[in-house]
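Minutes, structural biology subgroup

Action item carried over from last meeting: produce the structure token record for YfhL family 4Fe-4S dicluster ferredoxin (Rahnella contaminans). EB confirmed the sequence was re-checked against the source entry. Recorded below for completeness.
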Amino acid sequence: MALLITHKCINCDMCEPECPNQAISMGNEIYEIDSDRCTECIGHYDKPTCQSVCPIDNTIIINPAHKETNEELWDKFVVLHHNV
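Output recorded by EB:
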């Protein structure tokens, strides 16, 4: 499941540099997560770093429109980082 940044985002700039997949960028009003690049940090960390560094609780949530299994997230990580 890719993650989603909600409108609770205060644009603090904490999440973007922490994303190992370069999935976070500034949108029109708030930061956005590219679901094609988000692996929920599988392959890098035990839990999503964007959620860990976000100062506002429940701002970065599971995107209900983009459900993926851990295996699918792992496959995405492999494609993004190992040129398979």
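Discussion: Helices lie at 15-18, 49-53, 70-82.
Next step: EB to file the record with the rest of the batch.
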